[in-house]
Amino acid sequence: MKTKINPIVITLLFLLTVSNAIAQGYSLPKYSTFKLNNGLTVNLMEQHDVPLISIVAVVPAGAIYDGAQSGLASLTATALKHGTANYNRSVIDDELDFIGATINTAAYKEFTRVTADFAAKDQKKVLSIFKEILLNPTFNEEEFEKEKSRLLVRLEQQKESPKNVIGSYFDQQLYGKHVYGNINSGIKTTVEKLTVTDVKKFYEANYTATNSAITIVGDFAAADMKKSITTLLANWKKETQPKPDLANTKIEKPTSAKVLLINKADANETTFYIGSTGISRDNPDFVAIDVVNTLFGGRFTSMLNDELRVNTGLTYGARSSFNSYKNGGSFTISTFTNVKTTEAALDKAVQVLNTLHDKGINEQNLTSAKNYVKGQFPPEYETSGQLASLLSQMFWYKLDRSFIDDFEKNVDSIDLAKANKIIATYFPKDNLQFTIVGRASEIRDIVSKYGTVTEVNISDDPKM
């Protein structure tokens, strides 16, 4: 007779565990790292609370390597699942669906991620499929053409919603010719020209074990998993010559205020980003910057949201963020407003940023932000998937475990003098960049007061 497990009891035990973790301070669970002869880094972390396993592989094959073929990295990542030497697409889908497992692929700015989540009992089958997708894709031409057609439709559909495209426009405006300005999903005029041959060439050039990593977290014995992974991935090819770090070129800080106005003639709202250059992910002040940004625009009860939503009703929400990569990044204020309140919202956002610089923050607000950040910290790293993603990020950005183990201590060490220095050092004030999507006929004159204006139509592709 099977004993029924009360879900309420499980929930209470889970909450108790989380509460204890918060009270006692969080530290990164034990894990092991080894490297195969082909240069692949492997992280293994045993977690036996639930019979699940998560895998995250990161490969230096992101949009920064697209060159003039914008969208190539993204299409290549998607095409990995179109069939392999031993599994066609339908077999992959059927096998995974039958056991309730998932394998997903996606390309980002700097890298491609291949992830898997599955029951521990199915690890042999899923590992075999995972290896095939990563090492032996065949890039079926018929499937590729279908995927390209779907992507072209999505690219057109995205233009109906400014929030889906404004980030790409801002990156191009801020980074210029730097590869961080490359658009992950691509643009119509370049995607139309891509062929399955292009995808195969991109795969051959970029999908190597060298400088890649695979992280496995979950219910397994590390010694056994090490043998399995070594057997499966030891023959993954390594680079024949060092790969250039395309992102390791200087990102020029803006020297004047500029406005990129993207005309959407039927827009009833104005969507905008205000920002400038930011920080690289390994910046030693990353934690302090996160705390200050939480107070400024990183949570619902932030300075930005209070002023633009609560006090003035100019928007339903406003936020700020630092988007960081290996060799640089951006800072943005983002929100939207009714066309009629465009000027008021833009003025208010700039005013709040100026207030941050002119008045700084006080002890009470700093304490509130520190407590908020510490409270949000442990729940971000609870599941096997979250931990696998964390270790992958640590590999990619060359972070050691002190980032996690010393996190709360580093937050607590931020005093008022440090916080206000962070504001002066990292939060932009002059030469701001404005990316604005809206009805140009009504806001063209308004936005000209913020900087030199360049105007484009949302129906046109961004210039690469």
UniProtKB/TrEMBL annotation:
<feature type="domain" description="Peptidase M16 C-terminal">
    <location>
        <begin position="193"/>
        <end position="371"/>
    </location>
</feature>
<keyword id="KW-0732">Signal</keyword>
<dbReference type="Pfam" id="PF00675">
    <property type="entry name" value="Peptidase_M16"/>
</dbReference>
<feature type="domain" description="Peptidase M16 N-terminal">
    <location>
        <begin position="54"/>
        <end position="177"/>
    </location>
</feature>
<protein>
    <submittedName>
        <fullName>Pitrilysin family protein</fullName>
    </submittedName>
</protein>
<dbReference type="InterPro" id="IPR050361">
    <property type="entry name" value="MPP/UQCRC_Complex"/>
</dbReference>
<dbReference type="InterPro" id="IPR011765">
    <property type="entry name" value="Pept_M16_N"/>
</dbReference>
<dbReference type="InterPro" id="IPR011249">
    <property type="entry name" value="Metalloenz_LuxS/M16"/>
</dbReference>
<dbReference type="Pfam" id="PF05193">
    <property type="entry name" value="Peptidase_M16_C"/>
</dbReference>
<feature type="signal peptide">
    <location>
        <begin position="1"/>
        <end position="23"/>
    </location>
</feature>
<dbReference type="InterPro" id="IPR007863">
    <property type="entry name" value="Peptidase_M16_C"/>
</dbReference>
